[in-house]
Amino acid sequence: MISHRTGRSAFIFLGLFVCTTAMAADAAHEWLMKINHAARDLEYEGIFVYQHDTQLETMHIFHKVDNKSVKERLVSLNGAPREIIRDAREVRCYWPDKNSVMVEYRKADAKGFPSILPERMQDLDEYYVLRLGNTERITGRVAQLVIVKPVDQYRYGYHLWADTDTGLLLKADLLDTTGAILEQFMFTQVNIGIKIPAASLAPGMTGKSMTWYREDGDTQKVSEKPGWAASQLPKGFRLSAHMTRRLPMRKQPVEHLVYTDGLAAVSVFIEKQEQGVKPFMQGPSRMGAVHAMSARSGDYQITTVGEVPAATVAFIGGSVAPIVK
Amino acid sequence: MNDEHMKEKLSALVDNELDELEERRVFKALADDVALRRTWERYHLVRAALHQDVDVVVAQDAAERLARRIEAEPSTAVSFRRHRVTRFIGTLAIAASVAAIAITGVQWVHQPAPVPAPLPALAVNNPAPQNFIRSGTTRWDMKEPEAESALNAYLVEHDEFASTAGLGGMMPYVRVVSYDNDK
């Protein structure tokens, strides 16, 4: 009887402990969802800095919401005024320094806009430790720090500062596996909840004298089953999307596979190469926190890209092979 | 190289205006000269201030921490004292980490190998010291225009699904916009 009671109190104690940890994680989950919703639903405009390696860039962002449809514009304030305009249908990149405009069509909307899906939220706990940090002042507003720490070397960590009033992400640090900062985003000025004039979403250039590269909209079909697959994935990663598309600037159709652990995402692009053509890239490359790797497999060029450590890109990309039917 | 000349070079380095050969020369000088490292930190602070980015973490004690780091790594010091070439590469690796310390306030050595092994001793043995230098740019760390345009098209494609897309909307696209074409 005594032992039974001791066992039960131990069980209750353990239960309390688990509950407290779970509650801490729950609060962090709630903040993640709040950030996610704010990024989509709020109307805002602001200037932010982006820093990686020894580079520092200043950008202007406009985010307009009309009847639940979102339109965004991002303009570089340093150097050539490169910009990106994005809506539910397409992404337009203006590169005045290359005298070109590139248009790609969006595919994710069919699966819903948020890339952090509530149903995968619990999965996150297996690969990341989530907790809340202190509140801090960022660009004159009070922000809640959310700490997302990976449990292994296959993903990056995040420090996210969300506006306590609205949930809008005011500052973000991307951290490598040793906890060192890889990239920083931070608003230096932001107006949240204001009405943004439609004119602010218009490109700063007409693009008339520029060369336009458009994705061929008619031929983009989502194939029934992917023809390729990664045979090894770090724990928690699984296929979340696959499609075949004709990319602007690429001659051949490209098969695109997306693997995600619920937070980090890795894309694999498979493109047929003509015989005797030199592969456009071999081996690894990097830009900020993004790693890429390309390799030839028979007649195909396989390129893996992701906001993940080089090891993850190599691990996934190196195992991609045709599915034997 | 006299002091004034060196300061001009430092300023150009901060603005990313040096060619590879000059960069290498300045990194070597930085690795050997404490006073020069302090000047370099100041330049970074000034640059950050000019960009009105007061919150950028610029560690004021970077030089000291670097010195401590070198002391804490006797194996590195020994291995690059062995002969000239390895010594030079070791110096580069450390110079690159000076950059990382000065800017982010944290120790960080980029390892381009597919397996993450950011150990300084390995960095010394790495036969590709240029990767340490060129990692400090906004570009893909490679030189083929065709590869870059392909990677950029892929990156735009990928960004739709990128982790940070769910957190900050346009955040992942920032990399595409900040991409530096002029070289």
In short:
The complex is a heterodimer of chains A (325) and B (183). Chain A has helices at residues 2-41, 118-127, 310-317, and strands spanning 44-52, 55-66, 69-76, 83-86, 90-95, 100-105, 128-138, 141-150, 157-163, 169-175, 181-192, 211-214, 228-230, 238-245, 254-260, 265-272, 283-287, 290-297, 300-306, 320-322.
Description of the structure:
The complex is a heterodimer of chains A (325) and B (183). In chain A, strands 7-8-9-10-11-1-2-3-4-5-6-12 form a 12-stranded mixed sheet. Chain A has a 6-stranded antiparallel sheet with strand order 14-15-16-19-18-17, covered by helices on one side. In chain A, strands 13-20 form a two-stranded antiparallel sheet. Chain A has 3 helices and 20 strands. Mean pLDDT of chain A is 84; it is low at 109-114. Chain A has helices at residues 2-41, 118-127, 310-317; strands at residues 44-52, 55-66, 69-76, 83-86, 90-95, 100-105, 128-138, 141-150, 157-163, 169-175, 181-192, 211-214, 228-230, 238-245, 254-260, 265-272, 283-287, 290-297, 300-306, 320-322. Chain A is globular. Chain B is mainly alpha-helical and 183 residues long. Chain B contains 11 helices and no strands. Helices cover 63% and strands 0% of the residues of chain B. Mean pLDDT of chain B is 54; it is low at 51-67, 73-92 and 97-138. Chains A and B meet through helix 1, strand 1, strand 2, strand 3 and strand 4 of A and helix 6, helix 9, helix 10 and helix 11 of B.
Structure characteristics:
heterodimer; A: 325 residues; alpha+beta; 12-stranded mixed sheet; 6-stranded antiparallel sheet; 3 helices; 18% helix; B: 183 residues; mainly alpha; 11 helices; 63% helix; elongated
How are the SSEs ordered, and which strands pair?
The complex is a heterodimer of chains A (325) and B (183).
Chain A: H1 2-41, E1 44-52, E2 55-66, E3 69-76, E4 83-86, E5 90-95, E6 100-105, H2 118-127, E7 128-138, E8 141-150, E9 157-163, E10 169-175, E11 181-192, E12 211-214, E13 228-230, E14 238-245, E15 254-260, E16 265-272, E17 283-287, E18 290-297, E19 300-306, H3 310-317, E20 320-322
Parallel strand pairs in A: 6-12
Antiparallel strand pairs in A: 1-2, 1-11, 2-3, 3-4, 4-5, 5-6, 7-8, 8-9, 9-10, 10-11, 13-20, 14-15, 15-16, 16-19, 17-18, 18-19
Chain B: H1 3-14, H2 20-32, H3 34-50, H4 62-71, H5 74-81, H6 84-104, H7 120-125, H8 130-134, H9 145-159, H10 165-168, H11 174-178
